[in-house]
Amino acid sequence: DSPFTMPTPTAMAQFGDFTYEVANGAVTITGYTGAGGEVVIPEQIEGLPVGMIGYYSFGGKRTITQVSLPASVTSIEAYAFDGCSGLIGFEVAPASSAFSAFQGVLFNKSGSDLVSFPGGRAGDEYIIPSSVTSIKQAAFIRNRLASITIPSTVTSIESYVFWQSGLTSITLPSSVASIGQGAFGSCESLTRFEVAPASSAFSAFQGVLFNKSGSVLVSFPGGRGGEYVIPNNVTSVGPNAFSGCPGLTSVTAPAGVTSI
Q: Does the predicted TM-score (pTM) go above 0.70?
């Protein structure tokens, strides 16, 4: 059950445990073939700087426990570390101008973007630092945390951020102005949403997430089951709104719903 398209295998060059390709004088890591453990990404391959970690390049590598990024890396594509269920932390070279790591979590250099939470970390709660304003695409995908506290500095939650996570409930601060599609999809333990009353963008009714006016159903908690009757004021059901709700037996939509 995946929110993305698996990359099509192509012929790539090999350097140690890494597959790679070269474009515009820089190297993109496209895959990892090693045994896992602590992975140190090289700063150069064949004399060229390693500038990008490619799409799903370490995806599904469950034996990786730590990833160290060199200063040369300036871009990390979506889902690069998705499914790394043994990964407990990132390290970043201090000289990096693009990324940083705090308590093993990967951020951009300033700490305003939370880029990736290590998939092997578990616990009752994680409190996102107050420096963060944006949670990037798939940052917490498939995580095993029961609770995540979002600070009032966060304005953007991108697509598939919490896809298949272990969250049981989530509270959105009033600062959140945008939520990408599938952000809470397939969260089969999630039973309710709560939204700060001062929010100008979102609201929650009976634990279901809506836009502020209640006209758009944004996300239904995946841990809820049985029958659900969509409120009469709803005119649109958003993308992935009911994704991954295994206990849901029926949904009744009112006549006013014109878009699904």
A: yes
